[in-house]
Each structure stands twice: as C-alpha cells, then as structure tokens.
Design goal:
This is HTH tetR-type domain-containing protein. Residues 3-63 form the HTH tetR-type domain. GO terms for molecular function: DNA binding. The protein is mainly alpha-helical. The protein is built from 7 helices and no strands. The longest helix has 21 residues, at 48-68.
Length: 137
C-alpha cells in the first residue's frame, strides 16, 4: 500500500513523463511538482529507476484489478515499457522480482480476456513483451 507521499510523488512523476518523456525525467522536478522536499522523495525512491519501477508496478496492479473487475476503459500502458529488457535490466533485483510477479499476474489476466477486436492489440502487446522478456533471460 502506497503512502500519500508516495502516491503524490508517483503522480507527479507520471505527469512529468507524459509532458517531457521518460528520458528527460529529472528527479529534482518530481519532488517540487509533488510539493515535497528532496529528502522526503529520496526516503521513498532512491533513484530514477526505483521511481520507474514503482510507476510500472502501480500500473500493472491497477490494470490487473481493472481487468478482473471488467473496467476495461481504465486500462493504461504508459509505464509497462519498464518491463522491457532495455529498462528492466537496469533495475535493482528487488524491483525486478516485484515487477516479474505483477507482470505474470497481468499477463494471465490479459490472456483471459475474450478474443475480440477490442482486446487484440493489448493481447498482442503483452504476448510480445512476454516473448521479449523470455528471450532476454
């Protein structure tokens, strides 16, 4: 469960990434946008990679819940890119293990969706991510 501070920091980071892109994300901008001190930010997220991992985790968990509750309009894949080896390989082991677990649950949920056009892009995307992740191991 995220604290209010962590939620605010993740929300701020998400907005900044949508505005500027993942590569341009600056940790200094995150805590300022969220209204917290630099020290408060680093208590929760030690670096940019841990922040990206947390954004990805939150998205995977929220998406899995949305699928289980059939709230398909709420699905988002803004930060699922973190599961790709090009980013994932730079994360700490503990973050990778959490993402692996959440990704597996999300993949199972996506695979259980009906085979209709509405979900074909999502299903193909997660099949691609899964294959890419297997190949990288």
């Amino acid at each position: 469960m995220l604290t209010n501070k962590e939620t605010a920091l993740l929300d701020a980071a998400g907005e900044l990434i949508r505005e500027k892109g993942m590569i341009a994300l600056n940790m200094s901008d995150v805590h300022k946008k969220a209204g917290y001190s630099r020290a408060a930010q680093y208590q929760s997220f030690s670096d940019k990679n841990s922040l990206l991992a947390a954004l990805c985790m939150r998205e995977l968990v929220e998406n899995t819940t949305a699928i289980e509750e059939q709230r398909y309009k709420e699905l988002s894949v803004d930060f699922t890119v973190v599961t790709r080896p090009v980013v994932y390989d730079y994360l700490k082991l503990s973050d990778r293990l959490m993402i692996d677990s959440a990704f597996s649950q999300m993949l199972t949920s996506v695979e259980s969706l009906p085979d209709v056009e509405e979900f074909s892009f999502l299903k193909q995307g997660f099949a691609f991510l899964h294959a890419e992740r297997l190949k990288a191991k």
